[in-house]
Amino acid sequence: MRIKVREAEQEDYSPLCQFIELVDNDFYPPLSMRGNSIAQRVRECLSGPDSYYMIAEDDTCIEHPTDKILGVIGCSKYWKSEKDAYINLMCVHPGFRRKGISEVLCKELEKKTIAEGIRKLYVCTWSTNVAAMRFYEAKGFIPYCIVKNDRGNRVDTIHYRKTTV
Ligand SMILES: CC(C)(COP(=O)(O)OP(=O)(O)OC[C@H]1O[C@@H](n2cnc3c(N)ncnc32)[C@H](O)[C@@H]1OP(=O)(O)O)[C@@H](O)C(=O)NCCC(=O)NCCS
Fold this sequence. Notes:
CATH topology: Aminopeptidase
Helix content: 25-40%
Shape: globular
Number of domains: 1
CATH superfamily: Gcn5-related N-acetyltransferase (GNAT)
Order of helices and strands: EHHEHEEHEHEE
Strand content: 25-35%
Radius of gyration: 15 Å
CATH class: Alpha Beta
Number of helices: 5
Strand order of the largest sheet: 1-2-3-4-5-7-6
Largest sheet: 7 strands, mixed
Bound molecules: coenzyme A
Number of strands: 7
Structural class: alpha+beta
């Protein structure tokens, strides 16, 4: 496996929707239950002037594009100010977790956002998501706000931020 990261384009719309459907239930609540449909979420991120997805794919895979996506990270720029961005999605194919794919995606996103003048990244997760909490904390994100029982009984939302430059 050789991981390549690139910015998603309009042509990635359908493979992206299929990929996010595959991981939908790994989110709490599932992404499809958060108001927007997955299709709408993908459409808005791909067409928004200040948002984009970055895709990690296996460069050695020659199968159908859908099978090539290993992971996705999404970014919405200018979230609280003109020098920050919000990570609106991070997910890795269930068969390829714990292989450093998010690490590569996050590094590439940091590089790109720094080049775009972004100085701070924000993200949030929920308190039962040990993988994501460990990940963000290992990558230097600091929890700055915890909203108790935000997602259900004893499921808190944890807001993180990281100063990148
Ligand atoms: C969270 C998620 C994106 C991590 O992606 P990944 O590619 O498996 O993560 P990486 O392999 O890059 O892990 C890097 C580090 O994060 C931490 N980590 C990742 N998964 C972990 C797990 N299951 N348990 C504990 N720590 C974990 C570890 O510190 C790991 O380093 P190590 O393997 O050297 O110990 C992935 O589990 C996922 O897609 N989960 C479902 C969707 C989701 O929860 N997204 C985040 C929502 S906020």
